[in-house]
Specification:
This protein is an alpha+beta fold. It has one domain. The chain is built from 3 helices and 6 strands, in the order αββββαββα. Helix 1 packs parallel to helix 3. The longest helix is centred in the last third of the chain and has 13 residues. The protein is globular, with a radius of gyration of 15 Å. It starts with 9 loop residues before the first helix and ends in a 21-residue tail after the last helix.
Length: 131
């Protein structure tokens, strides 16, 4: 997989290599996909630096069990202006255990943990305007 200097935390991709991950640009970040599922978003930007790190694609029903494994897990505040819990959870890059926790998240993906990963909603097709 070609590497760009701009992709943050490349060790995450290294851990997922057996699953043949691929990436897509995602609002200035990078979405990490395995098959049709988005697993993670990698973010390292100057704006909203408190949201930099590994975003985990999950749903509200899995938060409690994931937080037992990742005590530093938090909502992605940039997605909701800090007003409520988001389905996406993140491990902040400035957490003491960032690398260890990110590797553990990769190991869960490698084991097929159903709590991580979402099939993105299909994009709406643009309607053709008649002239």
């Amino acid at each position: 997989m070609p590497r760009s200097k701009n992709i943050p935390f490349p060790f995450i991709l290294d851990y997922l290599l057996p699953l043949e991950p691929y990436m897509k640009p995602f609002f200035g970040c990078y979405g990490v996909y395995v098959g049709e599922k988005i697993m993670f978003i990698l973010r390292d930007k100057e704006t909203h630096s408190d949201c930099n790190g590994l975003w985990i694609a999950t749903s509200h029903e899995h938060h409690k069990s994931l937080k037992k494994e990742f005590p530093s897990l938090t909502s992605v505040s940039v997605l909701n202006e800090g007003s409520r819990e988001t389905a996406w959870q993140m491990i902040q890059s400035d957490s003491e255990d960032f690398e260890e926790a990110a590797i553990k998240a990769c190991e869960l993906v490698l084991k097929g943990d159903k709590r991580i990963g979402k099939i993105p909603k299909p994009k709406k097709k643009k309607s053709k305007k008649s002239a």
